Amino acid sequence: MGKEIAIVTGGGAGLGLAITRKLIQEDIQVIMIGRNEENLKAAASEFGELCNYKVFDLQNLKEIPALIEEINTEYGKIDILVNNAGINMKKPFIEVTDDDFASVVQTNLSSVFAISREVVKKMIEAGKGSIVNISSMAAQYGIPKVIAYSAAKTGIEGMTRAMATELSPLGIRTNCVAPGFIKTAMSAKALDADPERKNKVFSRTPMGKMGDPDDVAEAVYFFCSAGAKYVTGVIMPVDGGNSIGF
């Protein structure tokens, strides 16, 4: 059998890095896919032989089949796919251009579909596999100034359910983690610059604090693990209660 093989998109930074670290701790071989070779190289040297990477821009949909073919040939199989890569864009609704909207949807939704389709072809041959998509609070309730991101992440949740229904009979489970407000360099900077927003985040989060990237990584690993063998089509908020907070 050998080690399980996992692909983590956007695996070299932020939540993706925490997910990569967790899977490697569980003795899973991880191939990170990302655009920033510097981040990927740093992660690979930190994590050692269980960690490899491919530099690839997921907006390039036409090249995704060849990428997955290459990984499958190199490693012999793909057991786990974590669709974590995503971009965000904050702009007032009426200022978002068609190109802005298309770009966010292409990276956050179309590429998730395309890479999942190619990986699923390999998983069907093996008769097993686990896919974990990453959604957002923007799919749980309305957040202003992120219209394209909200549309894409809501699409991810619908796609998770549709994939689970169609693929579970073939041995492939599909689940989704919806992170709340997680402490990263990017989120800290954004909230510190906007005290009103920061206040709002904490006031509607029953646990009264932000999560750690590790909290998301633990949920992702659960979905990939044997402990979740009867779990499919689930959207799990990891948000300190934010999505149900008043």
TrEMBL record:
InterPro entries: NAD(P)-bd_dom_sf (IPR036291), Sc_DH/Rdtase_CS (IPR020904), SDR (IPR050259), SDR_fam (IPR002347). PROSITE patterns: ADH_SHORT (PS00061). It comes from the Bacteria. GO terms for biological process: monocarboxylic acid metabolic process. Belongs to the short-chain dehydrogenases/reductases (SDR) family. This is SDR family NAD(P)-dependent oxidoreductase.
